[in-house]
Amino acid sequence: MEGAEATRIMIGVNESTIKGYPHASISSRGAFDWALQKIVRSNTSGFKFLFLHVQVPDEDGFDDMDSLYASPQDFKNMKYRDRTRGLHLLEYFVNRCHEIGVACEAWIKMGDPKEVICHEVKRVQPDLLVVGSRGLGPFQRVFVGTVSEFCQKHAECPVISIKRRADETPQDPVDD
Amino acid sequence: MEGAEATRIMIGVNESTIKGYPHASISSRGAFDWALQKIVRSNTSGFKFLFLHVQVPDEDGFDDMDSLYASPQDFKNMKYRDRTRGLHLLEYFVNRCHEIGVACEAWIKMGDPKEVICHEVKRVQPDLLVVGSRGLGPFQRVFVGTVSEFCQKHAECPVISIKRRADETPQDPVDD
């Protein structure tokens, strides 16, 4: 199996809801760390990470209540700022890969994360999709919806869902 | 990550329904091959396989309509034969690991495969459970039940379900 093409691991990554810009969510960092420790191990040339960050557009296009958008330029600035946040998030993962010496690619898409992830799996055909999961109970899941469950059902490649460690779960488990 | 303990991959394996004794099912061979090619790759010292074969006891204790069981010895023979079948199945996987140079363990349990697999995950705490799946449609699933879906929901470790390749699916997809 030497010389074979690298195993391409796609990971969906998102921002933390509590740690503030530009931190990665606990569950996406957890999924990445798990893949490094348990799958890649010391075989850094055997794998390539594909980081997908899906940005969710706000319904009304505004995501900051304190700002006033009065001109086309304001909207451009907003889009620019969103894009910058996304790039900073991906930068964290790309930098870590660079330090470790694993190849990677990273990109941003807009839309509903679960739909976009499955669509991108179809398009780029990774060998494996790793998604972090908050490990919510059935009651919380009804309101929050889980990306990982949807992907396990619908993604056209093998999927591993990595639950957050108990000692990393915030007080409100919906936070991440 | 050099020197870390090997990543322990548990795989549930079963007999083929069509290829006859002592062939492994298409989906369990597929799951094993996938794990070798995509996860283990050339890093044979970084992984250890744990093969679990769950034997399903027949409701009435008979699994061969042509045989007559008239004495306690007959039952002993039957149990011995079942055990032998299971050992031959595991032998296939253990031999392949030996050829490749990956460490492994293998054992047999009796019971309902999905329940036993989840119970054994709790007991041996692998890093990862890989299960083969026939990739049945929703209609077939109602009647057949799928071990992989149950394990993805209930096993206390990350689970990858590997669907059979289209070109390996038998005419009746319930066969394996």
TrEMBL record, chains A, B:
Q: Which InterPro entries match?
A: At3g01520-like_plant, Rossmann-like_a/b/a_fold, Universal_stress_UspA, UspA
Q: Where is the UspA domain?
A: 25-161
Which PANTHER family does the protein's record reference?
A: ADENINE NUCLEOTIDE ALPHA HYDROLASES-LIKE SUPERFAMILY PROTEIN
Descriptive protein name = UspA domain-containing protein
Give the source species: Salix suchowensis
The organism's lineage?
A: Eukaryota, Viridiplantae, Streptophyta, Embryophyta, Tracheophyta
